[in-house]
Design goal:
The chain is of the alpha+beta class and 166 residues long. Helices cover 16% and strands 43% of the residues. Strands 10-14-13-12-11-15 form a six-stranded antiparallel sheet, covered by helices on one side. A hairpin with an 8-residue loop joins strand 11 and strand 12. This is UpxY family transcription antiterminator. It comes from Belliella marina. InterPro entries: NGN-like_dom, NGN_dom_sf, NusG-like.
Length: 166
């Protein structure tokens, strides 16, 4: 039996939910991280669900099944780096799920970040997580890197909950 990995699927613009639904209907395990945000229209405000990573979703499948997965309408391609399909580790998927479950405010950032101090969270909903701390706009953020799609999750964590690890 072929090894199952989390591959990163790029979709057409704003088609993440439909593609995820179609892949689930084919029996595939799909992870589409969603966040809620307030949208302002000229006549009203409304909370809407949107993909955490625009245009991306994660599919757990084998390398031999990638072509079949791409046959779903709205699927564009699998993300590649240096000719190899990007694979996201299970612990990175679990980290994203854990952060989403806490309900903390999240920003995504795909800029290159100079390596900072390694920190562990010593209190609050994310206690025990280890990662990197950066300062942006005079706030401390805890970074979870998702190298498979060159994205970083930045979670605002009060300084009192961060402890530098050695």
């Amino acid at each position: 039996m072929a090894e199952l990995n989390w591959f990163v699927l790029y979709t057409t613009s704003r088609a993440e939910k439909k593609v995820a639904q179609r892949l689930r209907e084919k029996g595939l395990e799909v992870f589409l991280p969603m966040i809620e945000e307030m949208r302002q229209w000229s006549d009203r405000k409304k909370k809407v669900q949107k993909a955490l990573f625009n245009g991306y979703l994660f599919v757990k499948t084998s390398k031999t099944e990638l072509w079949d997965t791409l046959q779903v309408p709205g699927a564009v391609k699998f993300v590649n780096f240096s000719g190899e399909h990007a694979i996201v580790r299970e612990q990175e998927i679990n980290a994203i799920k854990r952060i989403l479950e806490t309900g903390v405010a999240i920003e995504t950032d795909n800029s290159e970040i100079e390596p900072g101090e390694q920190v562990s969270i010593i209190g609050g909903a994310l206690e025990g997580m280890v990662g990197e701390c950066v300062n942006k706009a005079n706030k401390d953020y805890f970074i979870i890197r998702i190298p498979g799609i060159n994205q970083n999750l930045m979670v605002n964590v009060p300084r009192k909950y961060l402890e530098v690890t050695t």
